[in-house]
Recover the amino acids of this structure.
C-alpha cells in the first residue's frame, strides 16, 4: 500500500526576482517568446513554485526567464517545504502532466476563432496561421493546389475561378506600366487587428486586399485634406487604434 504524503506546507510571497534560482538540469526546454507575450498581455496570474530551502524554481522556470528578459524586478512565489527527492518529482510531474493533457480541438478552434474575429488573438500563445492550421485539421478550411502554390489557404471554388479568370483576361494596364509593392510591418497584436479591419472593408465593398487598403488610405487622405482628421489620429482612423 502506497504511503500517504503529509500535507505540503507553503506560503505565497512577492520576492526579488534575482533571489531565485533556475532548477539545475531542468529536463524541460521551451520557447519563452509566447510566455513573454502572455506576461505583457495578462501579467502574472499564478505564482512560481519554489523550494523554501534552496530557492530553486520547481514550476515556472521558463516563466521566470521570460520575466527577467522583460526586466521584472519582483514576482509572486509559492514557497514549499520539500526534500530533494520530492522537489525533483514536482519538476517531473509538472512537465509530464502538461504533456498528457489534450484538447477538444473543435472547442479550441471556436474559442480562438472568436478572439481572432475580435482582433484579440495576441496573448493566447497562438498565431493566425496556427489557428488556420487548426481549422484545416478539422476540415473547416480546404487547401487547394492553387493556394498551396501561393503559400496560403484556399479560397472558395467561386473565388478561385474568379481569380483564374482575371489572370486569363486581358489586362487593363499597359504591359510597360510599373507595378509597385507595398510592405507593411506590424507587431503581432496590431497585425491581428489590421487583418480584421481589412476584412471588414473587403466584405463590405467586395474589393481585393490591395484595393481595400488603397481605398482606406485614400479616404483617410481625403478626410485629412478636408480638415476632418486630426494629425495624431491619422493612423488610429486607418488601423482602428
Amino acid at each position: 500500500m502506497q504511503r500517504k504524503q503529509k500535507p505540503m506546507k507553503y506560503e505565497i510571497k512577492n520576492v526579488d526576482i534575482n533571489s531565485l534560482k533556475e532548477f539545475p538540469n531542468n529536463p524541460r526546454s521551451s520557447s519563452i517568446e509566447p510566455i513573454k507575450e502572455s506576461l505583457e498581455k495578462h501579467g502574472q496570474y499564478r505564482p512560481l513554485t519554489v523550494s523554501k530551502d534552496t530557492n530553486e524554481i520547481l514550476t515556472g522556470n521558463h516563466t521566470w526567464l521570460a520575466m527577467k528578459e522583460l526586466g521584472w524586478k519582483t514576482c509572486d512565489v509559492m514557497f514549499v517545504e520539500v526534500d530533494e527527492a520530492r522537489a525533483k518529482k514536482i519538476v517531473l510531474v509538472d512537465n509530464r502532466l502538461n504533456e498528457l493533457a489534450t484538447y477538444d480541438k473543435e472547442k479550441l478552434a471556436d474559442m480562438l476563432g472568436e478572439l481572432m474575429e475580435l482582433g484579440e488573438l495576441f496573448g493566447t500563445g497562438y498565431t493566425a496561421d496556427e489557428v488556420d492550421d487548426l481549422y484545416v485539421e478539422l476540415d473547416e478550411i480546404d487547401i487547394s493546389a492553387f493556394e498551396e502554390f501561393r503559400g496560403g489557404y484556399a479560397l472558395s471554388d467561386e473565388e478561385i475561378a474568379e481569380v483564374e479568370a482575371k489572370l486569363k483576361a486581358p489586362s487593363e494596364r499597359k504591359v510597360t506600366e510599373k507595378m509597385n509593392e507595398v510592405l507593411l510591418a506590424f507587431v503581432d497584436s496590431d497585425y491581428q487587428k489590421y487583418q480584421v479591419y481589412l476584412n471588414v472593408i473587403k466584405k463590405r465593398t467586395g474589393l481585393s486586399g490591395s484595393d481595400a487598403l488603397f481605398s482606406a488610405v485614400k479616404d483617410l487622405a481625403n478626410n485629412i485634406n478636408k480638415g476632418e482628421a486630426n494629425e495624431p489620429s491619422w493612423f488610429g482612423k486607418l488601423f482602428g487604434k
The mean pLDDT is 77. DSSP finds ten helices and four strands in the chain.
